[in-house]
Amino acid sequence: MRLSDWPYPTWIAHRGAGLLAPENTLAAFRLGAQYGYRMFECDAKLSADEVVFLLHDHHLDRTSSGAGVAGDVLWRDLSRLDAGGWHSRLFAGEPLCTLEAVAQFCIANQYALNIEIKPTPGVEYRTGECVAALVQNLWKGQALQPLLTSFKEDALAGAKTVAPALRRGLLLSDWRDDSLGIAERLSCVALVCNHGLWDATRVQAAKALGMKTLSYTVNDLQTVQHLQALGTDGIITDRVDLFSPGSPWTV
Fold first, then answer.
1. Which CATH architecture group holds 3-237?
2. Cα separation of 193 and 170, whole Å?
3. Whole-angstrom Cα distance, residue 133 to residue 84?
4. Active site residue 14
5. How far, in Å, CA of 29 to CA of 41, rounded?
6. Where does the chain show beta strands of DSSP type E?
7. Is 195 a catalytic residue?
8. pLDDT value, residue 251
9. Cβ distance 64 to 39 under 8 Å?
10. Which of 55, 113, 161, 169 has its CA at 20 to 30 Å from residue 41's CA atom?
């Protein structure tokens, strides 16, 4: 992969500004943008009628007024839920967000997006297919295409089948002997690891295969400095209020 093939900034706002505003909502994206961020991470899954929308958990309970498995609910019912009141009264009434709405926001402002494919268990491959197909349609003709990532190999495989030209990254919470091989098989251009997994040997091995090295979720200066010293390429952070995205490693 050539450097010119990687159009993304170093700093990525996790779930929008997911601590200061209700995560995965347009309110969080707007707030992250106010802090100067130009790339955002979000979680995408399918409703029961295959509308792609943003939610991290499998269940609705933690971050909305709903309950139960989100993927079992039709979008018309999901769209009526309050996805902001759990965070604070300031955001009460904020709705769940579709990927289409996020696309409109990002394209209008030339923001980059990291879409984590977060499937309901049992529909991993199908979720990857649907997310990739929608991204391909919504960002058609746009120079700045999203990065698709997932912990689920089947989700990335589905995305690769539908839209092989979209950039993909493998998310890792644990390092396995075959992690790099899996990423290669899925034609990934990036590894996105729990920040504690990176060491000099792993960074060098990933880069030798032409892969970018990103980290989640980094919220303290000491960890940022460590990752900088290792030569990693990107930081996903909740602390949009602490870290400045203005230059590659500005704090």
1. Alpha-Beta Barrel (3.20)
2. 8
3. 29
4. yes
5. 9
6. 11-13, 39-46, 52-54, 112-117, 147-150, 167-172, 190-194, 212-216, 234-237
7. no
8. 54
9. no
10. 161
- 4-17 in b/e burial notation, b at 16+ Cβ within 10 A? eeeebbbbbbbbbb
Sorted by where each begins, the domain ranges of the chain are 3-237
Strands 52-54 and 39-46: antiparallel
10-residue mean pLDDT series, the chain (251 residues): 76 96 98 98 98 98 98 98 98 98 98 98 98 98 98 98 98 97 98 98 98 98 96 97 80 54
Are 40 and 46 contacting, i.e. CB atoms less than 8 angstroms apart? no
Output helix, strand, coil percentages for the chain, rounded to the nearest 5: 35, 20, 45
Q: Distance between CA 79 and CA 2 in Å, rounded?
A: 41
Q: Please, is 186 exposed, middle or buried when counting C-beta atoms within 10 Å of its C-beta (0-12, 13-18, 19+)?
A: middle
**Residue 81 phi, psi dihedral angles, 5° rounding:** -80, 155
Whether the Cβ atoms of residue 85 and residue 92 lie closer than 8 Å to each other: yes
Gap between the Cα atoms of 83 and 101, Å rounded: 15
Q: Does residue 226 sit in helix, strand or coil?
A: helix
